[in-house]
Amino acid sequence: MHDRSKSVALANLWVAFAAMFVAILLGLYQVMNRSGLFPEIESHELYFASVSTHGVLMGFVLTTFFIMGFGYYTATATLKRPLWNKGLAWIAFFVSLGGTVMAAIPLLTGKASVLYTFYPPLQAHPVFYIGATLLVVGSWIWCLEMIMSVVTWKRDNPGKVVPLAMFGTTANAIMWLWTSAGVGIEMIFQLIPWSLGLMDTVDPGLARTLFSWTLHAIVYFWLFPAYIAMYTILPKVAGGRLFSDEMGRIAFIMLLVISVPIGFHHLYMDPQQAAGFKFLHMLGTFAVAVPTLLTGFTVLASLEGAGRLRGGKGLFGWIAALDWKEPMVVAGMLALFMLIAGGWGGMINASYQMNSLVHNTQWVTGHFHLIFGGTTVIMYLAVAYHLWPKLTGRRLAMRGLAVIQLWLWAIGMLILTLPWHVLGLLGQPRRISSTPYDSPLVEQWDPHELAMIVGGAVLVFSTLLFVLNLLLSHLSKRVDSVSDDDWAVAVHPPLSLPKPLNGYALWNGIVAVWMVVAYGYPVLQFLILETHGSLPWGY
Amino acid sequence: MNGFSSDEERQILEAPPRGTWAIILVIGVAMLLGWLYFFFGLFMSHGPVA
Fold first, then answer.
1. Given its phi and psi angles, is residue A293 left (phi above 0), alpha (psi -120 to 50 degrees) or beta?
2. Which residue of B12, B29, B37 to mutate against A (max A Cβ within 10 Å)?
């Protein structure tokens, strides 16, 4: 990696993990408050301020800064050239950081306790909305940086294959531009003017529709780097090769195309959208399982090759033969396991009718924590361990402890989230601060609530070990010299590819058409619909 | 070093991933059965809301 780009990557990653550290501490407080087992700490106001801060820090700050930092590393290390515009990368960093600090002030003072889902009529202080918008604007600058890096590289290397890691990173940047437009429109035309008192009314149905545009694909924005690491780092670190480069490209393209126009599965119970559109979005939701299946297959097949090269025999002997002392291998296997469990839970949520079985229950919280906190974040942690020596020039302080930390993370996440699935089936609603009822039903919840506290405590301990390891490594005097050129090579590396597998022009067109079909009428209808108590679009 | 010649290594890497197919198959069947149990066992058997 070009030395001058290391600082901006490292700065982004440190902000990401500092945010995560604070968020995890808040998470432990939340499960303790919510359990009702510690009445002395119960506070509704503090709980919702904490949940909002936890969600924003994990869902927006950790992810955005991690993705930006990892993207800068990927761009320079795979394209073997400096960033397209390093000054712009620093501008993106400071705009995002400024936005984060702005948003943090109302969050921490209880003036933005709206969770992290931008659903009116819950209203936050305008500074929160402006700060959150700036965070997104910073990420848009990052998108420009990634896209222009590839565009200029392709111009200088006509006909060459874009490295898979950069192909995926650019797909994510384009996908994020598409998907963040929904919440951007909501912020600019609804939430900011409404919170500033410039509009008298706001249409919650329109706001929810616009937010759904962002809400699902944002999960793939978070997940993309995890998949990129699985395809392009994990096979090499495991001692093998990538099973198929083309399969990775197809998965990234499918994620770009399919993941945006499917947000209505968050609105199954909402009256403002028609059943037909919800059904269309449901089909897309199930289709987006395909790239995940492709990823699971390709990554496992790559690991199988690595395990067999290490002497693994039989149908499953290669699993035991893998290098279980390597953090990336451990994280990759645990991430896939949690992806299967969380993905299956998602199939229940996504089923149009059956959604009512678990709608707005703690099941949903369990599902997205498994996918995000489990699969996604554990890969972020492993990527950090992988990148730290490259970015700091220092050896990882405690490699063995890194493996233990990753196991603890997965165990803690499972102890936390599996009981949440059970609680959901037992009827416990999500987004409540406490369960102050006295009935046989609530008594059934108690053991599961105790388990979630144990899970939360394990996660806090795991996070402490992680941050300590990074900190000690960064401050260490043990110099390490590691190559950046350690990306996985495919069994059959592509020497040339058809244009659609090496660029995005076709796929952008398809996304545009699909978005018009999936969101055109559902958004424009608010211009003609009678929305009781509010003006069309609030104006 | 894994002790394999480059030809052997290539053979191993190019072999069909039988273990992966088996895992995907088992997981696929388990997920389908789980979904069917939820749909017919929990959702449909629940009946209409009284």
1. alpha
2. B12
